Recover the amino acids of this structure.
């Protein structure tokens, strides 16, 4: 019977004959037999194989098995007398499927730095840390859909190629065919680009179906080589009709807790590894997030706190200036020491679609900030009043004719509605403790960097 190692270690069918496939992590020889540690990617743990000298290919194959080789083993599962594992597999046959030349295979037994592994995007999932990230990421992705589906949200596949450059001024990748011969000769009849957000299209569906979400790839041609930005990332964007900023914030907080809790309960072995080797205290921090009430303050209060802090910041703090990452992190790491939602930013700092507050100066915006990362969620209540929206669009230099479809949503059956965007890679960073966003996506894309 062919089994995965995670099932084997969970069920421990001692006395049964099973077949496993995987990649050799290490081999150790004694006089009469060899210990081979095999990993098949189903879990962090390896399975210990005992291969003794009686096997036909022992001398010329098994005793030469190198790290990285792929093998198939059939044998009897038995209790292990040794330390470090409950069970081991006594091989009755061990076939070498794909050798890995130890002279050139770059992943050897020792620990490699994450920077070194970044140059080996195609091989790094075979390491403990990057394999664990892939499993946690997959689990979280599944939980995102479960979270929304349990709450009756409808998933919308918003377009990847878009002709609405919502907030992406200068950040949008252009889509061209290479056959354009003159200006104005566009495949779609007008300029098009890769989406920077599915929000505008999600709004159309929220104002028909009530509660919707999108979860898809997003592209930003921003030239920021930071540990929190990618040129291609995945974003989760719920949009809710008949919902104000308070309801929006509640959903964002509930979702963050739900996803962190999911990782704690269904990826505990992998998180333990991160707690040991990536961020000491990770588990405690995540347990805190699930248990804690989050704090909420207004942008104005945040500015006041920062001004009174007596701290020297690199960037200036004054009402009307945007909060920089150093400010965000100071507030949620040092002042409150917990996730923090900042609301009601100056209208001048935020895009045209955010709802103007009664003070005429601020908008119903919210940013959810978390320790170690800063902004993880950005959202708002949307402007549902036609005149105010059209006014802000004109002021922003947007051609109203290009966006007449968006204005129609306010012309016919407009309703208060709200939504946000959660950067999926920032979430995976938050949950795994990875300092650089390039570790939490399989094949990262950033300025000057797109291996594979
Ligand atoms: P930041 O200020 O950090 O650049 P932003 O204000 O541009 O973020 P939004 O446009 O509000 O971000 O996007 C919503 C969410 O998407 C952010 O809160 C963040 O989690 C994520 N995000 C934004 N830009 C990137 C990026 N370049 N790479 C990865 N995630 C991103
Ligand atoms: Mn940005």
């Amino acid at each position: 019977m062919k089994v995965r190692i995670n099932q084997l270690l969970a069920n421990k069918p001692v006395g049964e004959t099973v077949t496993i496939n995987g990649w050799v992590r290490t081999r150790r020889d004694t006089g009469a037999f060899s210990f081979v540690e095999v990993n098949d990617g189903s879990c962090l743990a390896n399975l210990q194989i005992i291969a003794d000298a009686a096997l036909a290919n022992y001398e010329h194959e098994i005793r030469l098995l190198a790290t990285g080789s792929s093998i198939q083993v059939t044998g009897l599962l038995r209790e292990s007398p040794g330390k470090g594992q409950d069970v081991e597999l006594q091989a009755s046959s061990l076939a070498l499927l794909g050798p890995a030349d130890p002279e050139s295979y770059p992943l050897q037994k020792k620990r490699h730095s994450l920077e070194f592994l970044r140059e080996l995007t195609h091989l790094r999932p075979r390491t403990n840390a990057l394999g664990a990230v892939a499993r946690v990421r997959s689990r979280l992705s599944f939980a995102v859909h479960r979270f929304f589906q349990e709450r009756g949200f409808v998933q919308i596949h918003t377009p990847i190629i878009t002709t609405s450059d919502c907030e992406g001024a200068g950040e949008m990748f252009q889509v061209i065919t290479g056959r354009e011969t003159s200006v104005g000769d566009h495949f779609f009849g007008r300029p098009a680009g890769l989406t920077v957000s599915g929000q505008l299209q999600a709004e159309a569906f929220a104002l028909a179906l009530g509660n919707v979400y999108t979860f898809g790839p997003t592209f930003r041609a921003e030239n920021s080589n930071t540990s929190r930005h990618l040129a291609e990332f995945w974003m989760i964007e719920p949009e809710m009709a008949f919902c104000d900023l308070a309801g929006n914030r509640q959903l964002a907080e509930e979702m963050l807790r739900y996803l962190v809790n999911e990782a704690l309960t269904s990826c505990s072995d992998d998180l333990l590894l991160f707690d040991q080797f990536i961020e000491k205290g990770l588990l405690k921090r995540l347990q805190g997030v699930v248990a804690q009430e989050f704090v909420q303050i207004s942008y104005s209060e945040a500015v006041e706190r920062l001004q009174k802090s007596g701290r020297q910041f690199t960037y200036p703090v004054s009402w009307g200036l945007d909060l920089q990452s150093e400010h965000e992190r100071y507030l949620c790491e040092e002042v409150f020491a917990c996730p923090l939602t900042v609301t009601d930013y100056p209208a001048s700092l935020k895009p045209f679609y955010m709802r103007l507050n009664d003070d005429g100066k601020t908008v119903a915006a919210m940013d959810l900030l978390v320790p170690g990362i800063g902004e993880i969620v950005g959202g708002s209540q949307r402007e549902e009043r036609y005149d105010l929206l059209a006014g802000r669009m004109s002021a922003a230099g947007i051609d109203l004719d290009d966006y007449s479809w968006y204005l129609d949503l306010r012309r016919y059956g407009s309703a208060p509605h709200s939504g946000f965007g959660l950067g999926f890679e920032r979430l995976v960073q938050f949950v795994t403790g990875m300092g650089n966003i390039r570790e939490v996506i399989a094949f990262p894309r950033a300025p000057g960097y797109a291996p594979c």
Observations:
- The chain has twelve helices and 15 strands.
